[in-house]
């Protein structure tokens, strides 16, 4: 049945004008410039970001992948079970910092603090860690492998594990106390068990560690 009604033609919507978003400079100016941050200002920041502090500068860590987090969880559970059973100290996940030298704080993926160093454990950071574990991030390889290794050396941390998912290896470094340099205790590949010199009897299956992946429900 004719109604005499004609459907109106819809005109295409105009494309929005392109524009370049600007940072909110007014907020940025409330904070110190890079290189001018104090330790007090750094620790006053909200704690929901992965940020390290180096000589007045903020260094932002990349967001971890699911594979990174599963490797982290596996290693944490292995080390925590070993330490707890022997009442050796505490094992702490990423988010807690260690002071490696004056005006420098790093955030290992995992750190072990022995009972004898517990007195240096504060609310936001510890003054001494005995063992640190770094899981190499795809986006941050030089930072994780080279830069932080050197800082842990100079900070006198006795043992450092570098877990490299890309190369599927775990490198265990032990400190030469007089020289404050690391020597390789071992570079362990798939099929090996990575062992600790600091914690005799503690070892991890490398294959299991570096091949962690989400388990699908059956």
Q: How does the SSE layout of this entry go?
A:
Blueprint: H1 25-28, H2 39-43, E1 51-54, E2 57-60, H3 66-86, E3 89-93, E4 97-101, E5 104-106, E6 110-114, E7 125-126, E8 131-135, H4 141-154, E9 159-164, E10 169-176, E11 181-189, E12 193-195, E13 203-205, H5 206-210
Parallel strand pairs: 4-7, 8-9
Antiparallel strand pairs: 1-2, 1-5, 3-6, 4-5, 6-8, 9-10, 10-11, 12-13
Question: What does it look like?
Answer:
The protein is of the alpha+beta class and 218 residues long. It has a domain at 66-210: tt1808, chain A. It has helices spanning 25-28, 39-43, 66-86, 141-154, 206-210; strands at residues 51-54, 57-60, 89-93, 97-101, 104-106, 110-114, 125-126, 131-135, 159-164, 169-176, 181-189, 193-195, 203-205. The protein has a 6-stranded mixed β-sheet with strand order 3-6-8-9-10-11, with helices on both faces. It has a 5-stranded mixed β-sheet with strand order 2-1-5-4-7. It has a two-stranded antiparallel sheet with strand order 12-13. β10 and β11 form a beta hairpin. The termini are far apart.
